[in-house]
Amino acid sequence: METALVSGAQGLFLGVLNLGPGHVIMILVGSVLLYLGIAKGYEPLLLVPIGFGAILVNIPLSEMMAEDGFLRYFYDVGVRTEVFPLLIFLGIGAMTDFKPLLENPKIILLGAAGQFGIFLTLLLALALGFDKLDAVAVSIIGACDGPTAIYVSSKFAPHMLGAVSVAAYSYMSLVPLIQPPIMRALTTEKERQIIMGAAKSQPISKTTKIVFPIAVTIFASILAPKGAPLIGTLMLGNLMRECGVVDRLKSASENEITNIVTLLLGLCIGATMEAAKFLRGETLLVLALGFVAISLDTAVGLLFGKLMCVMTGGKINPLIGAAGISAFPMSARVVQTEGQKYNKKSYLLMHAMSANAGGQIGSVIAAAVMLSVLQGMGIVGQ
Amino acid sequence: MDTWTFGLTLAVIGMAGTMLVLWILSLLIVLMKKVFPYQSEESAAKKG
Fold first, then answer.
1. ipTM, 2 decimals?
2. SS (H, E, C) A20-46
3. Where along chain B do its domains lie?
4. pTM attached to this predicted model
């Protein structure tokens, strides 16, 4: 009886006895993510479940990610299969209005320039000694697009999923702090003062809005077939929005499906942040490279904006090039705010929204192109 | 394939490919706007 009492009491303290410094650090990291989400409002929909998932998985002996663990089940079903990020894309497509882009299609090129940071960061990651596929996963943070980063990293480097996702969402929420200094460094005051004419409010026919997602899916998927799931789900969501005959599906995509998947995806990402996997020098490098990637995206977008400014005889304000990233609509708002600082009569918002919508498509296309090139090179399976 | 051949190939084709696909999409949008021009509700009703 005495032995049974002692053994039973010991069971109560097993967690405490197994608590290591790694667990404590990661519980603190999870708590910081919760603080940033709740108190600072940085991407709370993602950082709250990620932070909580990080705490849960680092409770000693909780076995959340063991073979039959509670979070492991959702991870296997939704992240390992890449289904969760694709369902998020369905919701993003249903929520996104591509009208500004349809009104001003040449601006879509800024959305391509805004992805160059991905490829430049890839070279940097390789130079720092990352394995080929790990470098691909790190560089995709430059897509400035959480679901794309999760999709690619879960495919090629699942062990880095936590670090890549946290970097992607953290830097996206920090766009208002990251972009303005780069804008000021790469443009002259005269350029920042350029007034772009009122955005053409040329009406777009309903047929064009309906055909657009179908045409993009067919053409872009044929050119980059490996990205068809990304492009297809984004455009299916948008088709449901524009066609006007499946309001219930559209509503479910942008509300119920997105909300449920966001919660489970966040928890799963947090669950990948086990102390043994996360507390490595590599994680700090991933965070640093993520910052570089988003900065390079902004810089190349601005430089391309300057090129367009020269080619159009000064009709384009280069600042809108910074909105060629996928952080929608935050980046467009940053451009508007910066433009107004230098010229009160300058209204860049609608032009920047066009570039930002281009950036949303651009990030998906860049990932699709990357996957297809990797397939072509034989790095990933046919 | 060595690391730098891999990196440079992916970077160059990736950037060029992204730009090319988006340029084609911009042409596609222009084409769609020509094929399906906006018609006001009044003129659409007259035709209908």
1. 0.88
2. CHHHHHHHHHHHHHHHHHHCCCCCHHH
3. 3-37
4. 0.87
